[in-house]
Specification:
Helix content: 55-70%
Radius of gyration: 15 Å
Number of domains: 1
Number of helices: 6
Distance between the termini: 49 Å
Strand content: under 5%
Number of strands: 0
Amino acid sequence: MNKNKIVAYEKGHLEDLRDPKEAELYLNAALDDDDPRVFVQALGEVVKAIGISKVSKGTSLNRGHLYEMLSEKGNPELVSLHKILRVAGFKLNIHALPIAA
């Protein structure tokens, strides 16, 4: 695949994620995945779209720690996720699922 096409796709993707509704849909889709790392990666992309500096300042987490925490091998604590989501304009909600008998 052409590297320029990849860069153009990523740029367009990040522009889309600047729209709060698009980011909300993207994050919720990622939450539906069985692998929690998918959500962490999606959140990292939303943070990149919003601006790592803005999120860093709003959460009092340094940029390096944010990058590490939202990387493929990252494992952020719930407290950190909560801070990041709040600065990004989101919050997590819990919904009851039907219980199979």
